[in-house]
Amino acid sequence: NWILLDDQLVKEEQVNISKEDRGYQFGDGVYEVIRIYEGDLFTGQEHIDRFYESAQKIRLVIPYTKDVLQKMVHELVEANEVINGYVYMQITRGASPRQHQFPEQGQPVLTGYTKLMERPIELMRNGVHAKFVEDVRWLRCDIKSLNLLGNVLAKQEAMENDCYEAVLHRGETVTEGSSSNVYGIKDGVIYTHPADNHILNGITRREIIAVCAELGIPFEEKAFTKEAAHTMDELFISSTTAEVLPVTVLDAQPIGDGTPGETTRRLQQAFERRLGLKESA
Ligand code: PLP
């Protein structure tokens, strides 16, 4: 398997990350996950754009152009002959003697690799259970930062309660999932938290908004409360790797009749059409 190291493809053995890498010590970096379907990147440009935006928000200058990075990511996918899977990539502020402030002469370190992965068809069909967890993360959740402790602890708590995802809330307001965006559907209208500093503006979220416009489904970027979540007709989550997953049970209480809802199904189908797959599930 080939690895992307800065702007070169190298073999795994050639990757030698410093113990003083700031990504390792401070989580001082940003990342992206891009889905590969049938050998092609899905919304690759959007992910690369967000990568540069996240980097810019932490004042990290990526020392290659978007075109070079896009080309390298394509080469990585081809070299590893990935059919279905994803690319993970991250960039850190690099290695320097440990100190909180930026190093005076730091060289960012970019790493990228691919993984094989199939679509989560069973979960898409049957839906998942979720658990409310207080959102104690910082106030720049719009940055796809390597600092994921808040997300990690929330997901762990969900898993320990036999739930697939943690639905995060700041006080009474539902924000997003630990690794997904969260939506409620009431009387035919889809609601989700606005794309401000409290959530990551998901690429899948943007695709869903486009799908809703196409299908004429009313979509409102308006936050809802924990209490409202329980009375939604349908609830679902979205992410690059999970696509659109119905949430059928929240905090051990069924949403609607406790089975995936009709509107969520329509979204899944419309989303799948956007993938342009030769073989559908
Ligand atoms: N919110 C968080 C906290 C995430 O980690 C993710 C992705 O993993 C998302 C939302 C969904 O974003 P995307 O659709 O771009 O994968």
Structure description:
It is a single chain. This protein folds into two domains: 2-116, 2-Layer Sandwich (D-amino Acid Aminotransferase, Chain A, domain 1); 121-275, D-amino Acid Aminotransferase, Chain A, domain 2, CATH 3.20.10. The mean pLDDT is 97. The protein has eight helices and 15 strands. It has helices spanning 22-26, 44-57, 66-79, 121-126, 149-160, 203-215, 226-230, 262-275, and strands spanning 2-5, 8-11, 29-37, 40-41, 85-92, 109-116, 128-134, 165-170, 173-177, 181-186, 189-192, 219-221, 234-239, 243-250, 253-254. The chain binds pyridoxal-5'-phosphate (PLP).
Top keywords for this entry?
binds pyridoxal-5'-phosphate; alpha+beta; D-amino Acid Aminotransferase, Chain A, domain 1; 281 residues; 2 domains; 29% strand
Estimate the mean pLDDT confidence. Answer: 97
Radius of gyration: 19 Å
Q: List the total number of helices.
A: 8
Architecture of the largest domain, according to CATH? Alpha-Beta Barrel
What characteristic shape results from the CA principal axes?
A: globular
Strand content: 25-35%
Distance between the termini: 28 Å
Give the helices and strands as they follow along the chain: EEHEEHHEEHEHEEEEHEHEEEH
Q: Could you tell me which ligands this complex binds, including any ions or cofactors?
A: pyridoxal-5'-phosphate
CATH topology of the largest domain: the name is D-amino Acid Aminotransferase, Chain A, domain 2
Protein name: D-alanine aminotransferase
Subunit structure: Homodimer.
Family: Belongs to the class-IV pyridoxal-phosphate-dependent aminotransferase family.
EC number: 2.6.1.21
